[in-house]
Amino acid sequence: MSGKDWRDVIAVADLEKNWVTRVEVGRRLIAVYDTPSGVYASLALCNHGGADLCDGYFDGHVIECPLHQGAFDVRDGRPVAAPATRPMRVLEARVQDGMVQVRI
C-alpha cells in the first residue's frame, strides 16, 4: 500500500464515456480513462515525445500517442506499439462516492 493519500480529481458523471478525459491536479496533467473494466489514470504526457495523450486515439484499454502513434495499455502502462518502449506512468485510481480518486 502506498503512503500517498487518495485525492478527488473528477466526478464520474463528468468523464467522457468510453474515452479519455484530461484533468489538472495542481501542476500535473492527468489522463483519466473510462474503460470497459473500470477507471484508470496516468500522467497525461507521453514519455516518448511529450505529447498530451488526451489528444490521442483511445480504444478499450489502449491509448495511442498523437505524435508518433506509440501505444500503451492504460491498465498497467506497458507499451503495446512502437516507437514506445518504456511503460507510461500509471496512477492508482478508484471510484468512491461518485468521484474518481487517484494517489499522487
> What is the strand arrangement across the widest sheet?
2-3-4-9
Helix-and-strand structural type:
mainly beta
What's the helical proportion of residues? Answer: under 10%
Radius of gyration over all CA atoms, rounded: 13 Å
Helical run tally: 0
Total strand segments:
11
Shape: globular
- Return the average pLDDT rounded to an integer: 95
The N- to C-terminal Cα distance equals: 13 Å
Strand content: over 45%
- Biggest sheet details: 4 strands, antiparallel
Spans of at least 5 consecutive residues whose pLDDT stays below 50 are: none
- Give, in order, the helices and strands: EEEEEEEEEEE
Task: List the main descriptive attributes of the protein structure presented here.
104 residues, 0% helix, 4-stranded antiparallel sheet, mainly beta
Any chance you could write out the topology, listing elements then pairs?
Elements: E1 6-11, E2 20-25, E3 28-35, E4 38-43, E5 57-59, E6 62-64, E7 71-73, E8 79-81, E9 90-91, E10 93-96, E11 99-103
Antiparallel strand pairs: 1-11, 2-3, 3-4, 4-9, 5-6, 6-7, 7-8, 10-11
Structural write-up:
A four-stranded antiparallel sheet has the order 2-3-4-9, with no helix packed on it. 0% of the residues lie in helices and 47% in strands. It is globular and about 40 Å long. The mean pLDDT is 95. A hairpin with a 2-residue loop joins β10 and β11. With 104 residues, the protein is an all-beta fold. The two termini are 13 Å apart. It has no helices and eleven strands.
